[in-house]
Amino acid sequence: MRNYSNTITLSKNARGIYSIDTVLGCSSGTAINKNGCYNDCYAARISRAYGYDFTKSTVRYFKNENHKHLIASAAQRVPLPFVRIGTMGDPSEAWGHTVSVCEAISSVAQLKIFHEPPKEIVIITKHWKKLTDEQLMRLGKINVCINTSVSALDELGNISEMLYEYERIKPYCKSVLRVVSCDFNIDNETGHNLHKIQAELFKHSNTLDTVFRPSKNNPFVTSGVINVKKEVFNGKKQLASKFNRKTYMGKCSTCSEMCGANFKKP
Question: Which residues have C-beta within 8 Å of that of residue 260, sequence separation ≥ 6?
Fold first, then answer.
């Protein structure tokens, strides 16, 4: 298996999401399960398909000042109101570096050559490592939205920690609860209990519904804990467990929520 490059890039995926990942891979998540979260992390799956080792967290850097300016300038020009950090790895594996990259992107975007405010930076994380108060204060000075990824499928202790971080972030910057949801089988005892936990998660403010797309051999599928069916995702049919029939599964450009970028800051 190959290791990821340690050079930062601005990339666009098939869904139209522009990402500047500060970390590729997720050593913390794969330490719990080699296949990543819920035994079916899409980023881990894609990495394996391309021959990359997702179990190692590769921190990515700007090559020099010119490279930093090029990446940040390109990010400012993307046709969306935000760029994302945390698409193919968890930035919490290197919070200090991630905060510095956010500051660098924001500082370049504030130059007079640009005629609109800096793009919002959406950070998606499971908080494997915790932000310090000093790091939160720095993020609070720039246009950042932190998506705390959580699911009823997580261990109860992890859910409590994620909810704590989600609340702790609120005084500093926009905080969104990104719920990986499922259509739980309430006739199954485990499914029924997880359904109740999920309902409590959605009672929080500023929640996003992210549909779980498992493989057919996922233990939650084979044990009957979740219901699945073929759904159209990004123009193609894929197996999914869709809790809310109205949840959006199309291109990023026509999404109303924009990973929370369209939510108002409290």
Answer: 122, 145, 147, 174, 176, 178, 206, 208
- Paired sense of beta strands 144-150 and 120-125, if any: parallel
221: nearest Cα among 213, 233, 231, 211 = 213
Tell me how far apart the alpha carbons of residues 36 and 88 are, in angstroms, rounded to a whole number.
Answer: 12
In this prediction, residue 112 carries a pLDDT of 61
Mean pLDDT, the chain, integer? 94
The neighbour count for residue 61, using CB atoms within 10 Å, is: 14
148's enclosing H/E stretch is strand 144-150
Q: Are 174 and 263 in contact (CB under 8 A)?
A: yes
pLDDT over threshold 80, residue 264: no
pLDDT in tens, 118-167: 899 999 999 999 999 999 999 999 999 999 999 999 999 999 999 999 99
> What region, left, alpha or beta, does residue 236 occupy, with left being phi > 0 and alpha being psi -120 to 50 degrees?
beta
As a residue count, the chain comes to 266
Q: What percent of the chain clears pLDDT 70, i.e. is strictly above it?
A: 98
Q: What is the pLDDT of residues 225-247, one digit of tens each?
A: 999 999 998 888 999 999 999 99
Rounded to whole angstroms, the Cα distance separating 187 from 101 reads: 47
Biggest CA pair distance of the chain: 60
Contact predicate 122/82, CB 8 Å: yes
How is residue 194 written in tokens? 């997880």
The pTM for the full model equals 0.95
